[in-house]
Structure prediction request, 651 residues.
Amino acid sequence: MNKNLRKDSSTRNSEETRLVAIKTLKQTEDLLTSVTKTRPQWARLVSAVDHRVDRALAILRPQAIADHRALLTSLRWPPPLSNLTSSNLDTRKSSEVQNPLFTMQGDLKHQYCENFLALCRLQELQRQRKSRQLEGHNREVAIHQPLWAIEELVNPVSVASQRHFSKWIAKPEFIFALVYKITRDYVDSMDELLQPLVDEAMLTGYGCREEWISAMVASLSTYLAKEIFPIYVGQLNEESVTGIRSEARISWLHLVDLMVSFDKRIKSLVEQSGILLSLQEDVTLRKISSLSVFCDRPDWLTLWAEIELADTLEKLKLEMDEEKNWTKKVQGAVLSNSDDYKCPAVSSSIFRCLSSLIDRCRSLPTVSLRSRFLRLAGTPVIKFFLDCLLLRCQEAEGLTALTDDDALIKVTNSINAAHYAESILKEWCEDVFFLEMGLDQGDELGESIAEYSGSKVPIEEYGNGIFHEEIVKFEDFRTQWVEKVSIVVLRGFDARCREYMKNRRQWQENSEGWIVSKTLVGALDYLQGKMSVIEENLNRLDFAGISRSLAAGVDRLIFNGILMSNVKFHDDGVERFGYDLTVLFGVFRAWCLRPEGFFPKASEGLKLLKMEKKQLQGSLTGGEKWMKENGIRHLSVAEVEKIGKNRVFTK
Prediction:
């Protein structure tokens, strides 16, 4: 070992000469920076000096890197990996393998540190020159490169690791375990030994821990892109040609699971240095994510999304075919607005699968990738669910026209499911994670969100969240079927009270002991029965909409069918009509405190009929002023006059 550590005087002189050269070039660069700012007309002179400096750097850097590699060899870097097996990959640092960066001593340590420092100073000089030369351009992107000295540590480790990788193609979990173990075991030496040297070189914007981790992740991503993914893609292509289903899809999903898990562990390693990563730091996340392979291969991202979608739909179809999942309610389906949605259990299954897709999507390193994946894999799941709801409603409507309670319950369950889905999507879209994807107008290839999904929604609409279009579709579905339920019940009520409407003589006869008209009893019983079924099975908000719609429809029926049909109202008829409306209001009193307000036309018509003769006659000449004075706000002058003319005072 001591023999390997001896260096002759020529090596020491070479190191000293290099340091002097770097110092001289640094002074030259400082002078060029000053001249560029104060004497812009000397641009040609600066260019000539730049050319000479570039020639000097072209000699210095290769020499420094060659000496650095020789020192690493003397250090016996990389440490031997041959003692690592699949059984001990997840264990902590073993006593057999020591970190050469911690064990080096004496002249070798001094030489390594000096050489490392020289490389850092060279890189800082290069960064400073690029910053000057790219003044006015996007300099940060252009001048930031991986730390050269760390790359020299990672490259031999990567080569040694790949000899093991080749044996584990069918067991990729061992590959991830080995990379993580190496990354974790040597990360401390980056902080304790090498970071002070980077700081001494005044190389700004670099952390040895982050550079070590990102370089190790990059080597893994490169291997996956070159060796693992092409195998799986070939298997999938073969499967599509032969039609024989293979394990390729399962293997692909398993690989992605490993990548997601690995990225989470790597992220925790980075954050141990006190750096908290934000979702907005796409560049940083991309450097420490194995899933960054999809940044360069969007076709693989599309393939992954298709596999995830097929797997998700296959699971969902099994659950959606079980009728009990449509009748059993989700326990505790209450969101932040404290509304009970009474949604079927299948809704929970849909959003459990969708949440799983979103969790996997969160691991992707850029907003554009997350947006595209969710459009390809998540949005079709929502569309599939909405199509199922529509089909069930259409089946119920086609069989009985929603006249029986079972069909009505089937539709209300679908409305509940749609309302639950709409509410969850709205809550999600308030999160920054989804808002970012909604605002994203394309990925790094310049494609827009609409191109991914075939959507025709204007791009500005996505400012409301990535699921804005789906939320609108659920709203339209609910509105459509709530209206259909209201129309069906109203038609049933109309059919049952048709005789009541046609009986014009009843308003001129005594009630014969009945408080409410006989012919109205059956219609009100039908209305109350249907409303009870709907109330029991429909969520509170949509039930309120149906009850208001039904009340408005009944109000129109009674007003147009009776009050506007030129019926003559005698005193007993007015009393009978008052009793009828009181019972009708009683039916709706179970669902609202003041049901009279939902029947404005019928209520004001009764108010007119109950007026004294002299007061009512004032309506014939008083017009709108008289109506305002007497609290008539929902009828027209012509309607008031017509009711007044049909009132017959018999007492």
